[in-house]
Design goal:
Keywords: Signal. This protein has about 260 residues and is of the alpha+beta class. The protein has helices at about 1-15, 40-50, 70-85, 90-115, 145-155, 185-200, 215-220, 220-225, 225-235; strands at about 50-55, 60, 135-140, 140-145, 205, 210-215, 245-250. It has one domain (about 20-250). Strand 3 and strand 4 form a beta hairpin. The longest helix has 23 residues, at about 90-115.
Length: about 260
């Protein structure tokens, strides 16, 4: 029995390497070119202000400190987003909508199941995490977190920096940003997120003649391009000496980004 459980864990862990491909869900392509409607993300911002802890190499979340009142505020924020029709938003508002929705829903999943050591403990017995579970309904369509990331954000915007702004509540993940996304700050936050991750040890960690990279660059290699293209991308944001991607290893820490 112990052997079976160990083998199952290894198989599930290995499946994370075969990350979902960008597979467009055409329904979500529609947008309003001239609509100036703005989405209110202030509730999400207040939770970030109150519970996010920004450290030099890592941001953490005070899950254990979140009050019942603030859990209600998070639920209300998600319900308000679910009432909106993203088709009626312009492209910039849509991007902020989907990123904030993904990150806020991830925090809710952790709070609903807290305490736990890793988000990978969620989901069914044969699941590695909750990402395929239908956890939201938008425009009458049941959505999973994987739907938002891999069927909406990645194929519509085709920007590798998306991987730096959707947060999986893990220490190895690019940090949850202290600012909620809006139509006006999206480009600044994308650049800030890329810079912060690439200059963190969990993102890019030169070790002599070797470089340890986040597994994100392995799982989503198609989004970052060839080794030469990835090297150029990394050096664009590096604040120290440029790196050369020769001998490369990959690592990822699935422990919860919990501020104890």
């Amino acid at each position: 029995m112990r052997f079976f459980v160990s083998l199952l864990f290894l198989l599930l862990s290995a499946s994370t390497v075969a990350a979902p491909k960008a597979d467009l869900w055409p329904y979500w392509q529609q947008y309003a070119t001239s609509n100036s409607q703005k989405v209110d993300h202030s509730r999400w911002q207040r939770l970030l202000d109150k519970y996010l802890v920004v450290q030099p190499q890592q941001t953490l979340f005070r899950y254990s400190r979140v009050s019942d009142g603030d859990k209600y505020e998070l639920d209300r924020y998600l319900r308000d987003l679910a009432k909106l029709n993203p088709h009626q938003l312009n492209r910039n508002e849509q991007f902020a909508y989907w990123v904030n929705l993904y990150n806020a829903q991830t925090v809710k999943l952790i709070l609903d199941n807290y305490p736990l050591s890793s988000i990978t403990k969620l989901g069914g017995f044969f699941s590695f995490g909750p990402w395929d579970e239908k956890v939201l309904t938008i425009n009458g369509k049941a959505l999973s977190l994987n739907d938002i990331e891999h069927r909406i954000l990645r194929p519509i915007w085709r920007d590798p920096r998306i991987h730096y702004v959707v947060n999986c509540a893990s220490l190895g993940c690019p940090d949850l940003q202290p600012d909620a996304f809006t139509a006006s700050n999206t480009e600044r936050l994308l650049e800030k997120s890329a810079t912060r991750f690439i200059n963190s040890r969990k993102g890019v960690n030169p070790q002599g003649n070797k470089t340890q990279l986040s597994s994100i660059y392995e799982w989503y290699g198609n989004d970052f391009g060839s080794t030469v293209q990835l090297q150029k991308h990394i050096n664009q944001y590096r604040q120290g000496a440029s790196i050369t991607l020769g001998k490369v290893s990959y690592d990822y820490n699935w422990s919860l980004n919990d501020a104890k």
